[in-house]
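Working notes for the structural subgroup meeting. M.R. asked for a predicted model of this chain before we commit to crystallization trials. I am recording the input and output together here so anyone reviewing the notebook later can reproduce the run.

Input as submitted:
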Amino acid sequence: MSPRSSDWWYDEAAGPIVRPYALVSGRTRPTWGRLNLATQVRAIRTTSDTSALSVEHLEIMKMCRKPLSVAEVAAYLHAPLVVAKVLLSDLIQRGDVITSDASRMAVAPDRNLLQKVLDGVRAI
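Returned structure, recorded in token form:
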């Protein structure tokens, strides 16, 4: 099987030639700590200076034109979750992407509704 030009970093027999943590200079913790699996990420800046960005950063910017979860970004990059989080935190700090946490967007249920449900269960 001949390698595609986008697979230059992967050797069929040996696996990745560039280890995932080399992509983030050995960093193991994101500098922006509020990222979980369900956090939605969307690129907002496409005209900024991208000369300081790695190929992986640019790939994230391209794929996040529509909102994706952190888990999806890691899957599409074929990288461990922590690597994706480190790369995303770099972009967040630069202002290239924004996040929204779906788990925090839920509205608390109405207390009156909960009381009516409780009363109905007790009546059974």
